[in-house]
Amino acid sequence: MWGGNTLKNSQTGFTLLSVMIALAVLCFLVILLASIATVTFRQSANDEVGRKDIWLFFHQTEMELVGATHIECISNRLNFRKDNQEITLQMRGQYLQRKVNATGNEVVIKALNRFSCQKEPALVSIEVVDLKGKMYRWTVLNMIE
């Protein structure tokens, strides 16, 4: 009797040990898969959103264009007047530069392939293409003529 009881206890111990090892392996695999999925989904989400510097440029330009006067879109250049300042956005190589009153060379966006704009009576449409060929468009409603 004594020997049979000892054998049963040792088998129970091995069963507990095997369950603990199986749970440890399972936890490790779950953590590994979760980290791989996080990296994968984060990259695909960034690809959908695109370049944050371009979206920031669109928002800043919209803030300037609202209420601006004398807006001109000529090939790869956008000119407008706001608060008695002449502001110019123009492509120079792979850079989009911003000048105020024809002075300064502030680089607004780097690594661009193309910048274009189009003005309609109450709208200004801006289109930017990065070096990877991805196109970004933004339209600004301008109530002042």
UniProtKB/TrEMBL annotation:
UniProt superkingdom: Bacteria
Any one GO CC term of the record: cell surface
Source species of the chain: Pullulanibacillus pueri
Membrane-spanning intervals of the chain: 12-34
Keyword Transmembrane: yes
Compartment list: Cell surface
Protein name: Competence protein ComGF
Keywords per UniProt: Competence, Membrane, Transmembrane, Transmembrane helix
GO biological processes: establishment of competence for transformation
Major localization listed first in the record, in broad terms: other
